[in-house]
Each structure stands twice: as structure tokens, then as C-alpha cells.
Design brief:
With 216 residues, the chain is an alpha+beta fold. The protein is built from 4 helices and 13 strands. The strands form 3 sheets. Strands 1, 2, 6, 7, 9, 12 and 13 form a 7-stranded antiparallel sheet that branches.
Length: 216
């Protein structure tokens, strides 16, 4: 599915949002996600009632280019997501950063920035799995884990002002039954061998791009 953040529900406004690339996609679930980039977002911004207004006033939305900032600053990003009312709770929000170094090599790093429960990253920064409530025999699951809503402000800890980069948000649900698991339970047969019992639906924002200031 595709989502569009438009100012109003008209064809013209929706097309304008597509041109701005203020859009997001999902693997089929109805997750909603908003993603803003700037240079001075604070935790209070995303936790306040006017976080969307703060995003537009002091930053740019998904699909945009970051404006030039004062020397020595690293970009900060504000992300918010809410679950599909008819699907699983949210496991985590990640920000994916990609860049190309001076030698032309491509790089990508994934940062966990918000997650459900009281999990703690390990010594290597890896976040434990959220768990799995899927029952293969019934093809059902329980929303007893995860969160209905997640949000965070995150600052790039390894920012290099001289390197082109992009950032996008990825929102991941808790495990839910795969369609083959649901069908097998309904038909009263075994799940075909080799097929996963559960999947984790997800959503992706459009990227926000950073370009170094032009040399003079």
C-alpha cells in the first residue's frame, strides 16, 4: 500500500504531495508514519501535541532535501508511527542511513531508534527480538507484546558533513501469521514444509537527502 500526506483530500492536493515525495509505503498493513529531518529537533518536539507543526516549522518532511546547517551540527530526525487498528502492534522504528564514501564504496547502517517494552540493546548495540505470539495451530496471534504507537528524535552519531547521505524510517510490526499459516489452520492441514509460520509487516518512509554545501 502507499500512503500520502496531503493537505486535503482532493486530487490536486494528493498529486502535489506525490510531487513533493511526501509519501510512504507498506507491505500491506495500514501503519501510518511521519518523518521529519532538521538540525535542532528535541525529544519534547515529538512528544508534544504540535509535533507535526514543529516538523514543518523547523525542518523538512520525508521526500525533501535537508537545508544547509551551521558548521559542526549533525542532523536530527523526528519520527512517529501508529499501528494498523486491525493488525499487530509495533515492534520498533528504525532509521536507515546510506552514503557513498570518497572511494565510491556504498554503505548502509540501520539504527533502532524506538521500540516497545523495556528491552535494552546488547554490548554490540543489537536490540533483542520482540517475541512471537503466533499460534500455528489456530493461525492467530495476540497483541500482548509491542506498542500501538512509537516515536523518537534521533541524531546521526556518525555524521560527516562532506559526504552525501540519505535517511529513511522503517517501522516494523510484531510477528503475525503468514497467509499460509492462516490457510493451513483454516483447512486443518499442516503448514507446507519450509514456509515461515509468521511474518513482520512493515512500512517505509520516503528518504530525506543530505548534500554537502557547494565548494566556493
Amino acid at each position: 500500500l502507499a500512503g500520502v500526506w496531503a493537505q486535503e483530500n482532493t486530487r490536486e492536493s494528493i498529486y502535489d504531495a506525490m510531487v513533493r515525495k511526501e509519501t510512504f509505503g507498506t507491505s500491506g498493513t495500514h501503519i501510518k508514519v511521519r518523518f521529519f529531518g532538521g538540525w535542532d529537533f528535541r525529544d519534547a518536539d515529538v512528544n508534544g501535541r504540535e509535533f507535526v507543526q514543529a516538523g514543518y516549522a523547523r525542518g523538512v518532511p520525508m521526500g525533501s532535501d535537508l537545508p544547509t546547517a551551521a558548521q559542526g551540527k549533525a542532523p536530527s530526525f523526528m519520527v512517529w508511527a501508529i499501528k494498523d487498528p486491525l493488525s499487530g502492534n509495533l515492534d520498533r522504528i528504525q532509521i536507515v542511513k546510506g552514503w557513498v564514501d570518497a572511494g565510491g564504496a556504498e554503505h548502509e547502517t540501520i539504527y533502532d531508534v524506538a521500540w516497545s517494552g523495556d528491552r535494552k540493546p546488547d554490548a554490540k548495540g543489537k536490540l533483542p527480538a520482540v517475541g512471537n505470539t503466533v499460534d500455528p495451530k489456530t493461525g492467530s496471534y495476540r497483541n500482548s507484546i509491542g506498542s500501538p504507537e512509537l516515536s523518537a528524535v534521533w541524531k546521526d552519531p556518525e555524521f560527516d558533513a562532506g559526504v552525501n547521505a540519505f535517511y529513511y524510517a522503517r517501522v516494523i510490526e510484531i510477528p503475525t501469521p503468514r497467509w499460509s499459516t492462516r490457510d493451513a489452520a483454516k483447512l486443518g492441514v499442516e503448514i507446507p514444509g519450509g514456509l515461515p509460520v509468521s511474518i513482520q509487516e512493515r512500512a517505509w518512509s520516503s528518504p530525506i537527502w543530505y548534500s554537502p554545501p557547494a565548494a566556493h
